[in-house]
Amino acid sequence: MRFRCIEDQRDTWPVRVLCDALQVSASGYYAWRGRPESARVAANRALLADVRRIHEQHRGRYGAPRIHAAVQAEGRSVSRGRVERLMRRHGIRAATHRRFRVVTTDSKHDLRLPKICSLRPSWLPGRTRSGWPTSPPLPTDEGWLYLCVVLVSTAEQFWATVAE
């Protein structure tokens, strides 16, 4: 990892300065640079090219299980975990569909539920109370109705209004 960082930055800074900053020897860096690529790294690079090709062929919809099946169908023997690891390391993810949701009402409106300022039920002659609708409209046989709450400040007032 340190040697890869030195390799990326060697055009900007001298190699000796980078080696001193990362506390590695310059001879170790040059030995790393001269080493041939390992068989595993070469195989992973070839597998990654296949994974990207299959992923693009299927418009980004395939995840690791399907890509693994497709790679095996092409005749390559590779484990699913290895495909998953390569995909995760290189940020390859399956695009997911948004779930279809039935939307029958427009819930993004600016309408507010109105405050009903004076309720005069037939059993309360001459008295008024404040009430607020507390539910969405409820369907009934006679049409749509709101459930309303009437606020009474004390128990005595409540029983007095019920008794009248």
From TrEMBL:
<dbReference type="InterPro" id="IPR050900">
    <property type="entry name" value="Transposase_IS3/IS150/IS904"/>
</dbReference>
<dbReference type="InterPro" id="IPR025948">
    <property type="entry name" value="HTH-like_dom"/>
</dbReference>
<protein>
    <submittedName>
        <fullName>Transposase</fullName>
    </submittedName>
</protein>
<dbReference type="Pfam" id="PF13276">
    <property type="entry name" value="HTH_21"/>
</dbReference>
<feature type="domain" description="HTH-like">
    <location>
        <begin position="44"/>
        <end position="100"/>
    </location>
</feature>
